[in-house]
Design brief:
Blueprint (H helix, E strand, L loop, with lengths): L1 E8 L3 H12 L4 E4 L13 E3 L12 E5 L1 E6 L3 E5 L5 E4 L1 H15 L2 E3 L3 E6 L2 E5 L5 E11 L6 H5 L7 E10 L6 E4 L1 H4 L3 E6 L3 E8 L6 H14 L10 E6 L6 E2 L2 E3 L1 H4 L10 H16 L6 H19 L4 H16 L5 H5 L2
Parallel strand pairs: 1-2, 1-11, 2-8, 5-13, 11-18
Antiparallel strand pairs: 3-7, 4-7, 5-6, 9-10, 10-11, 12-15, 12-16, 13-14, 14-15, 17-18
Helix pairs in contact: 1-2, 1-7, 7-8
The structure holds flavin-adenine dinucleotide.
Flavin-adenine dinucleotide binds next to helix 1, strand 9, strand 12, strand 16 and helix 6.
């Protein structure tokens, strides 16, 4: 059986950043991704200035915005800054770039490899041809997203899950918009994130158990009121895990959505996945690394969680809270970049 110092399950941003950082330090690392190609993921592709904008090559940025608009039931606020507050990226392109960087650093990346089972010191994998084989690990990193097998293997429940639904429609749109429409999305929101040749139109709610048909109907009704006809566009939905319960479990580690590091308030998870992937890699290389970046992210995430919890009560409560939030943003008592991005 072939053995690696580190095996990473999952080739999203969390797994790829972890693989690159480990390989740069000379660690023999294998990343296993079950999809045929790296990068494709249901996502609005929004990245923030304090998060990823400054870290990805400029040619990956599809659109960037020095202005963004937030609407509640009764108010509207528009932020303007000199530098872009938010930009959009294409997840496939981000994935390809991150894979190339990891491979350049010396990581092995195998696609079409579904990790089926985790055993003490080895994983059982089935490839695209249906061939099953085992690979040995010294350390195992679960970067396998919100329905993580590695997390389930550790018997860690995921009780705080959000759901996001996205339509990637062809066309163009000028503004980046967030709609805190509590009548339709309660303590979630609808978004319009323009890309280069498409527009991401979608909605997020920080809880599951919402009948998908009802969620979709509400999203379509809201989109139509904004002038978007989405009948011909396929809807795509996925879970977003924000139930963080630690990242280090002996020789097994969790990063990104598998660790529950996304924001429960906004659903932002690309930057937390990348930062946690790098941090876990550094901690594997040097066990004395304080992993301060994860601690900082968890503090932010807990702040977001408090808003989600406060808004989870009655409809009236939720509306009042969202209006208060927008009012504080209007009065500049809350800074969008500092308080609402991860
Ligand atoms: C509708 C929607 C919109 C979103 N919009 C944004 C946004 O605008 N900005 C933002 O920052 N975040 C957004 N997110 C969240 C973001 O997509 C995730 O937080 C982010 O992708 C997490 O990265 P990750 O590497 O942890 O996991 P993922 O990107 O989910 O990657 C996990 C990988 O593991 C693979 N995998 C899973 N199981 C196995 C297995 N058993 N064997 C092998 N491989 C496996 C999967 O195929 C996948 O490629 C959105 C999410 C949704 C659902």
């Amino acid at each position: 059986m072939e053995k690696f110092e580190v095996i990473i399950v999952g080739g999203g941003p969390g797994g790829l950043s972890c693989a690159r950082t480990l390989a740069e330090a000379g660690v023999r690392v294998m990343l296993l991704e079950r999809k045929k190609t790296i990068g494709r993921k249901v996502c609005a592709g929004g990245i923030t200035w304090d998060g990823l904008i400054q870290r990805v090559p400029e040619n990956l940025i599809e659109r960037s915005f020095t202005e963004q608009r937030i609407f509640s039931n009764w108010q509207e606020v528009c932020f303007r800054r000199k530098l872009p507050i938010i930009a959009t990226i294409n997840r496939e392109q981000l994935g390809r770039w991150m894979r190339d960087e990891a491979v350049k650093a010396g990581a092995e990346v195998r696609t079409g490899c579904n990790v089926r089972e985790i055993q003490d010191q080895h994983v059982i994998v089935t490839d695209e041809q249906g061939k099953t084989f085992s690979l040995g690990w010294g350390q195992l990193v679960g970067a396998d997203g919100s329905s993580s097998l590695v997390r389930r293997h550790l018997k860690i429940p995921s009780e705080k899950m959000g759901v996001g639904m996205n339509y990637q429609a062809r066309g163009s749109y000028e503004h980046m918009e967030w709609h805190l429409n509590t009548g339709l999305f309660r303590n979630g929101y609808g978004w319009v994130f323009p890309h280069r040749e498409t527009v991401s139109i979608g909605a997020y709610r920080p809880q599951t158990g919402i009948p998908p048909v009802r969620f979709k109907k509400r999203l379509l009704r809201w989109a139509e009121s904004k002038g978007f006809r989405l009948d011909e566009v396929p809807a795509q939905a996925e879970l977003i895990n924000f139930d963080f319960r630690g990242f280090e479990f002996g020789k097994v580690w969790l990063v990104g959505d598998a660790a529950g590091l996304a924001s429960g308030l906004t659903g932002e998870g690309i930057h937390p996945a990348i930062v946690s992937g790098e941090t876990v890699a550094r901690k594997i290389i040097d066990p004395n690394d304080p992993a301060a970046e994860i601690a900082r992210m968890v503090t932010k995430q807990q702040r977001h969680q408090r808003i989600v919890d406060l808004a989870a009560g009655s409809a009236a409560n939720c509306t009042l809270l969202m209006e208060a939030l927008v009012l504080l943003l209007r009065l500049r008592l809350i800074n969008f970049q500092k308080h609402l991005s991860m």
